[in-house]
Methylated-DNA--protein-cysteine methyltransferase (Streptomyces kebangsaanensis), 183 residues
Amino acid sequence: MDSHEHSEQVVWTVVDTGIGPLLLAATRRGLVNVVFHATDAVRDRALARLASRLGGEPSEEPGSPLLAEPMRQVRAYFTGERRDFDLPLDWSLISGFNRQVLRELASGVPYGTVVGYGDLAERVGQPGAAQAVGAAMGSNPLPVVVPCHRVVESDGGIGGFGGGLEAKRRLLALEGVLPEPLF
């Protein structure tokens, strides 16, 4: 049921976090998008993308019941009071292999742990698809909540990250995987 014959109501807000402002967008089915560096220009591009993908015009509604729990859990995660997100997720922005990989990541890679791109490929029955897993991480519409920051290179490198390597380092430090940055 991923076709959108009619437009989906999308509500959004921006939350300040330890890695900068995050845009949170939700539909009646759940959290649909998390966007890093939600300054005006980035926010406007993200909202235009949501409008074209889901139809309708996203509306800023920080008081929406659809956003109350995502906002609470994101804030608690960044203050160290929460390790796991327990939110309904709307997966309509992603499908196929990418959705399969992200669902495995969300359910199978707990707080404070990391997994290699190749290992994650094996977990979804696609050994040798490490590059495709990297592409799935890059297209993750729900970063932080679906923790693509926990996917790293097998040689110990931290790999890429849509929010930038500094944000990835900070998230991994928050979870105790990396030492806290010295600044």
The beta strands are 11-17, 20-27, 30-35, 59-60, 115-116, 151-152.
